[in-house]
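Lab notebook, bench 4. The sequencing result for the construct came back, and we need a structural model before the next group meeting so we can plan mutations. Quick request posted to the team channel:

Model the 3D structure of this chain.
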Amino acid sequence: MASGDFCLPGEGMEILQQVCSKQLPPCNLNEEDLLQNPYFGKLLLSVSQHVDESGLSLTLAKEQAQAWKEVRLHKTAWLRSEILQRVIQELLVDYYVKTQDTNLTAEDKKFHETLEQRLLVTELTRLLGPGQEGEVPSLLGLEKADLLELMPPSEEDFVWMRARLQLEVEEQLKKKCFTLLCYHDPNSDSDSETLKAAKMWKLAEVLVSEKQQCQDTKSQQKERMVLLEKQSATYSQVLLRCLALLQRLLQEHRLKTQSELDSINAQYLEIKCSAMVLKLRMEELKVLSDTYTAEKVEVHRLIRDRLEGAIRLQEQDMEKSRQVLNTYEVLGEEFDRLVKEYTQLKQTTENKRWVLQEFNKAYH
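Done. Here's the predicted structure in token form:
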């Protein structure tokens, strides 16, 4: 590493690609973390020389691989015996079913009875165990000698049964293999037995290849998930920085921009209001123009002149009446008494005139 134990920007990305993504288990680190912790890059390089991809030490990983190898060998041996055991049990089950439906030959009955007896004795002998003699009481007080008495009496029957059992097991296993082949490749159902057998020899290799492809796909998916997590973390940080920048820009420029926008909106509204006023005035003038023609205006002018002349005459008469009233008001209470007396005399005169008229009518 350059600069002693410190990590330069370019070297940080190289360490992330070589160590964190390949030699060490997936970890959420970025180049900024290495820059903030200068000695951490050297620690990663040192640790990567002593551990594998799973995080185990090299010695422990080697011991684990050897242990898994032994486990696989024991598992293979157990699976072989288990498969053989299940196939034999299936043969016996088929025998029990056939005894209910069809008549078996003497050889078939002899074969299945000898097989059942031998299998039963073998299972009971296994249950007794090799280390129970002389140490703990045996199961139900039985000894191996007691079980051996249940073995088939004739050794020839046992040899004959074992030879036939081998053929039966082979036939049963062949059927199962063909069934597995047809399940894996449904198109093989119509093939001949020879072609099916040839495909069965390669089925194990095909399954191993498919399993390896599946593991490779899972590994690629795991790497992509790690890359996706790193990209998500990076994108999140970038988005946060962008949001902070946008927030700062808004805080700095929002008031200025808002004031300019308000001023522009006010000018727009003012111009729009003036346009509306002018439009209303134009509509008003249009209505007046349509309502009052030149002839109507002339007639209205003549009417207005006559009305103004009549108003002037009325004002003159009113002025004369006001002067007369002012003159009468100057006389005071004496004038009021004379008015009342005049009114009474006028009323009396009117009454006598009416009486005289009635008197003249009576004499004519």
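Confidence is low (pLDDT under 50) at residues 1-10.
Will bring this to the meeting.
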